[in-house]
Amino acid sequence: MPVTRSNPKTVIFGPFIGEFGWETMHWLGFVNNLCATKYLDYRKIVISYPGRSVLYKFADEFVPLPDWFIELKPSARNYILDGWVNGYPGVSNSEYKWDLNFAFKKISNFEKPHRVLDETPFTWPSMKNYAEKVLSETLSSIGIEDYVLICPWKLSSIDGCNLGFNDSVPERYLSQERNIFRFPNPESEWSRINSTKKGKDFLSNLNVNNLELITIFPRCRLVRRQDKNWEYASYLKLIDSLALRYPNLGIALCGEPGGAYFENSAPENCIDLINIDPEIRLDAHIAALERSKVAIGSLSGAMFLPLMTGTPTLVFGFESEKSRFERDNFLRTKLNYLISTNPKVEEVLAEVERLIS
For FRET with 213, which of 221, 249, 253, 281 sits at 20 to 30 Å CA-CA? Predict the structure, then answer.
């Protein structure tokens, strides 16, 4: 249940600590909607990663996650983190095996048993403890007694619906889909994202010739789901090919260190929006997308961002994810989904040409 005090005049959303794709697809629209409707007369506070205030234009205040938490370099997983409790959810090779305890519990409840994901627990301390510390420190710093708290990694009942994450199950089963109760995305008006003047000005200082752009998200995540990464050499070849084919367009690289190739330095003549201050990074990404003819990247939650700025988008990845991108394209942005986890550069270029023409 949302934590409610008497006569609440403040509503607090967060802390959001999970994946960026989940924040954009299954959180921000919900938060913006409530800020502009149900909690319009409340003091509205959002807690999330530094620089993401640009997502919450209907909130009154934004509180960034503390530096000590960011320095842990947490590995996000839907609304929670890898290793949430005693190493689970853990590392998996996507194989499913029979678990006798789980099967017996299912049968005892007159439910059909099934295999569960085979996982090896992470070795770091339980990340839930750090999330709880962030929450307690933030509430203490705000210094109020009357508030409503809606936290994405806790289970809440809102208007009769269960939303958030249920971690009351045994830790071994935290990775099961049934524990996730997605916050619903309202109509498209709540899901459109715009940059601020600050983001536009930052981009303008880097895009000195005021070119229209091609934006690339060179995903490189090593802790989990490395199968979604495209090869480094392919990105280099793509950048060179795009520069030759579209000399009147600039190339912007988006992402963040630890989750993208080209951390520390970017190829020559590219606009580097990866190795910049996190306080401006997302705002600058959105500004770049607003000036882009197309956005390109492998399967990633970040690839929903261009769909929410109305930027023609090319995604390549597993066939099973195609329908999700098409279904959750709320703004009906022009989208090409290439079914391939390791496409040839020539295939990507052909799809880019279709989107630009």
Answer: 221
**Residue among 163, 162, 142, 160 nearest 152 (CA):** 163
pTM: 0.83
CA nearest to 53, candidates 8, 19, 26, 13: 13
**Three-state SS annotation for 291-329:** CEEEEEEECCHHHHHHHCCCCCEEEEECHHHHHHHHHCC
Q: Are residues 164 and 280 in the same domain?
A: no
Q: Give the C-alpha separation, 4 to 26, whole Å.
A: 23
User: How many domains is the chain built from?
Assistant: 3
Q: What pLDDT is recorded for position 115?
A: 54
319 CB contacts (<8 Å, ≥6 apart)?
A: 339
C-alpha distance from residue 216 to each of 134, 170, 250 (Å): 33, 40, 11
User: Which of 221, 184, 218, 175 has its CA nearest to residue 77?
Assistant: 175
Whether 300 and 317 share a structural domain: yes
Number of H helices, E strands in the chain: 11, 18
Identify the H or E element spanning 115. none
In this predicted model, what pLDDT tens digit does every residue of 51-69 receive, in sequence order?
999 999 999 999 999 999 9
The answer for residues whose C-beta is within 8 angstroms of residue 135's C-beta and 6 or more apart is 15, 151
> Which residue do the tokens 């009154």 mark?
60
Q: Are residues 110 and 234 in the same domain?
A: no
Whether residues 27 and 116 fall in one domain: no
Per-residue model confidence as pLDDT tens digits over 168-224? 999 988 998 999 999 987 766 777 899 999 999 999 999 989 999 999 999 877 566
CATH of the domain at 77: 3.40.50
Asked if residue 106 has pLDDT above 70, the reply is no
Phi, psi of 302 (to 5 degrees): -65, -20
- 159 in the same domain as 78: yes
Show the tokens assigned to 347: 């295939």
Q: Within this chain, do residues 174 and 297 fall inside the same structural domain, yes or no?
A: no
What domain range is 331 assigned to? 197-356
Quick one: how far is CA 255 from the chain centroid? 11
Asked whether residue 224 falls in the same domain as residue 171, the answer is no
Per the prediction, the chain carries an average pLDDT of 88
